[in-house]
Design a protein that fits this description.
- The termini are far apart.
- By secondary structure, this protein is of the alpha+beta class.
- It has a 6-stranded mixed sheet. Strands 12-10-11-13 form a 4-stranded antiparallel sheet, with no helix packed on it.
- The chain is elongated.
- 33% of the residues lie in helices and 32% in strands.
- It contains 11 helices and 13 strands.
- The longest helix is centred in the middle third of the chain and has 21 residues.
- Helix 6 crosses helix 8.
Length: 344
């Protein structure tokens, strides 16, 4: 087994790196694997890339099965590396990389009698592809491949081969031991690992969807005869790409460290139903209301036009607008709904 270590200068990735902001004090590493096929029973692992942070800078560590027989050592070294970490970040790893390695470990135990420790069970996995998947339409992504999301973030890299094509390159390397083939397979994985650091900026979108921002100016405006509630939000991690998306009259725009929500205001009479669905004993109120998106802070009253209506509203009064925490929770619910929205 060959071990290759490279330090990525902080200045190169710092504008994109949102890992520490999102995960806080948790110890985070990343990984990605290269295999000779998709079936763990008919193929094997020939390369594992790992990203770790040391002294404030990312290091890319590649474990290379350079003789075609080092897979047990490869997996043992990798499992030892992630021991003690809190979070393992990957891209489609929940569905492929992690179960593949676990099945290979079982195969190696049965075939060769070599027992390997499974530290996946002690670490929290975080799949960047799974995280971004619900936002595909809102962000205008044609697909959720790693290179597509990198391009969305403004990162363009030249990669002559994909993972499938590199299988033959790797097998050719084992046969001929030529340096060109070795560099090709290492370069592809190395670029994927560096790409994951850049890709971590998508966590800024996740933070926004989770309500990790501060509420700035609260105002109203008239937009084509529709009264709109305007909320300005100060994001805790900057976006590398602008977001403009909408849902049923609600508009979200975000750029850098600022976001703005425009939400239609309903003017008229709404009913408060103490027992939620029964019309008896309801109280009618005239005022200004905004959709609640079915997630209302417990202390706030929920209003409906009819007792069995699915649409619920929040009244724009001092109890709501006078409490920044309520407004922050509400804005987070709206953003989450908008980013997860798909046109039917």
């Amino acid at each position: 087994m060959e071990k290759i270590v490279e330090t990525v200068p902080a200045r190169k990735v710092s504008e994109y790196d949102a890992v520490s902001t999102y995960f806080g004090n948790k110890k985070v590493c990343m990984f990605d694997i290269e295999t000779t096929g998709l079936s763990p029973f008919k193929s094997f692992t020939y390369l594992i890339g790992v990203n770790i942070i040391e002294d404030g800078e990312w290091k890319i560590i590649q474990l290379f099965n350079d003789d075609g027989q080092s897979e047990p050592e490869l997996i043992r070294t990798f499992q030892s590396m992630i021991d003690g970490y809190d979070v393992l970040v990957e891209f489609n790893g929940d569905r492929f990389d992690i179960p593949y390695i676990q099945k290979r470990m079982g195969y190696i135990r049965q075939k060769f009698g070599i027992s390997l420790t499974d530290n996946f069970r002690k670490i929290e996995s975080f799949d960047l592809m799974k995280m971004i998947s619900p936002y595909k339409f809102a962000l205008g992504l044609p697909n959720i491949k790693q290179k597509t999301i990198e391009k969305y973030l403004g990162i363009n890299r030249l990669d002559m081969y994909n993972g499938g094509q590199l299988i033959d390159v790797y097998l050719g390397y084992l046969a001929g031991r030529d340096e060109k083939s070795r560099k090709l397979v290492l370069r592809h994985n190395r670029d994927d690992m560096e790409g994951m650091i850049f890709l971590s900026n998508i966590l800024a979108t996740q933070m926004m969807a989770e309500g990790q921002f501060d509420v700035g100016n609260i105002d109203t405006e008239l937009d084509n005869d529709t009264l709109m509630l305007m909320l300005e939000l100060e994001l805790r991690s900057g976006l590398k790409n602008k977001i403009f998306t909408s849902m049923e009259g609600v508009r979200l725009s975000a750029s850098d460290s600022l976001a703005q929500l425009r939400i239609p205001i309903y003017t008229g009479v709404m009913n408060y139903y103490p027992e939620k669905t029964k019309a008896e004993g309801c109280e009618s109120y005239e005022g200004y209301f905004v959709p609640s998106f079915n997630k209302t802070p417990d202390i706030l009253a929920e209003y409906k036009a009819e007792p069995k209506s699915k649409e619920t509203y929040i009244m724009l009064n001092d109890t709501f607008l006078g409490n920044r925490e309520f407004v922050r929770q509400y804005a987070g619910n709206v953003i989450n709904s908008v980013l997860n929205y798909r046109i039917k």
